[in-house]
Structure formats: C-alpha cells, structure tokens
Amino acid sequence: MTLIVVVDDEPQIRRTLATNLRARGFDVELADSGEVALTLIRSCKPDLVLLDLGLPGIDGVDVIREVRLTSDVPIVVLSVRDLEPDKVRALDAGADDYVTKPFGIDELLARVRAALRRRVGVPELRVVDGERLRLDLDHKVATIDMVPVHLTRIEWRIVEVLVSNAGRLVSQRDLLQQVWGPEYGTETNYLRVYLTQVRRKLELDPARPRHFITETGMGYRFVP
C-alpha cells in the first residue's frame, strides 16, 4: 500500500487529509512537527510527504533539506505562505510541488497522483494528441486542427521541457537553465515573453490557457 506522511501542526488539517487519503486507499502516518516528521520519514520510508512549512521547531524548508541528504521521496508543500520568495526557497531546497492553503482536496489529490507517477518512472510524454492540439516532440511538428504551426527553436525547447514533464511543476530556474543554459536562473522576463508567444500559437484562448499553465511565483506546468 502507498504510504503518505502528512506533516502539519494543525490537528484539523491532519485529520481532514488523513480521512480523504485513507478513503482513497492510501496508508497515512501523521506528524505535528519537523522533528517527528524526520523520524517518521527515516523509519517508515514513505512514498510521498505532504509538508507544511510553518512548523514548530524545525522549519519546513529545513526538513526538506535534511530529507534530501538521503532520500528522493516526493515532497509536496502545503503552506499559507504565498509569497514568491517562500515558494522559491522550498522548491530550491528540493520540494517537488507547492500548494497554497486553502486548497481544494481534488486539486491536492491530483498533485499527489502526479508526484507518485513520477516516482515510479512513468515514461516522459513525447507525443500529445488532443482534440485540437497535436505535438510531436521527436519530429518537432505542431498542429492545431491539423494545420501546421511554426515554433521557433526557443519556443520548441520550452514546449519540449514542459511536455516532457507533463503534469509536473517546472520551476522558473529549472526551465531557464534547461532552455538557455546553467548560467541562467533569474531572467524570468524571458519566460514571460516566450510563454506568451507559445500560448498565442498553441492555445485556443491564450488569455485563459488550458495546456501551458503559470503557477504564480513558482514556475510552469503543461496539462495534456
């Protein structure tokens, strides 16, 4: 059975998450502090960790750093902290995803499933064949309603990185470095410009994108 460790100092949130996760067949262990969380993670070897940042004792970001010394277990952060620096710190420390409180349980479960799929090594997506949009990464062919769409080299690289990580949050830093090189990391204006162009070409309604989603302050996500 898939084991999830839930770490939150609020009893009501722990109970709510435990009830919903167990109802969907997950095994759940609960922790109310960073110290307890680290002990559980080391002893139970969970498949995923749901982690609040504002913990008594060891802060959530320090928990992430400590876990990453010995484990690649997926960590999904749950936090009321919605400022960009907090999100960047957590992602740079090694978190896989970041969900801001309050959140919908269905959205959270979708993030959990996506993180677990990545853990078991689901092959990266190379062809998107949707109702209107078709992307073939290997042959660099994009069509909308079977009409070819021209993408520049940089646009294709952005699309390739996001599609290959379908469903997964790709941080701004990771996307910049994978597209432009390791010396990049803060030039977020590049991403805004190029993602706008990609949406104009590949989204039915660029102002309300369905596929190329911005996670404010964190990065971008491709939804097939």
From TrEMBL:
Family annotation (InterPro entries): CheY-like_superfamily (IPR011006), OmpR/PhoB-type_DNA-bd (IPR001867), Sig_transdc_resp-reg_receiver (IPR001789), WalR-like (IPR039420), WH-like_DNA-bd_sf (IPR036388)
List the Pfam families hit by this protein, alphabetically.
Answer: Response_reg (PF00072), Trans_reg_C (PF00486)
Q: Where is the OmpR/PhoB-type domain?
A: 123-224
May I have one GO cellular component term?
A: cytosol
Q: Which GO terms describe its molecular function?
A: identical protein binding; phosphorelay response regulator activity; transcription cis-regulatory region binding
GO terms in the biological process aspect are:
positive regulation of DNA-templated transcription
Name of the featured protein: Unannotated protein
PANTHER family per record: KDP OPERON TRANSCRIPTIONAL REGULATORY PROTEIN KDPE, REGULATOR OF RPOS
Q: Where does it primarily localize?
A: cytoplasm
Q: Where in the cell is it found?
A: Cytoplasm
Instruction: Please name the Gene3D superfamilies in this protein's record.
Output: 3.40.50.2300, 6.10.250.690, Winged helix-like DNA-binding domain superfamily/Winged helix DNA-binding domain
Q: Which residues form the Response regulatory domain?
A: 3-116
Q: Which UniProt keywords apply?
A: Cytoplasm, DNA-binding, Phosphoprotein, Transcription, Transcription regulation, Two-component regulatory system
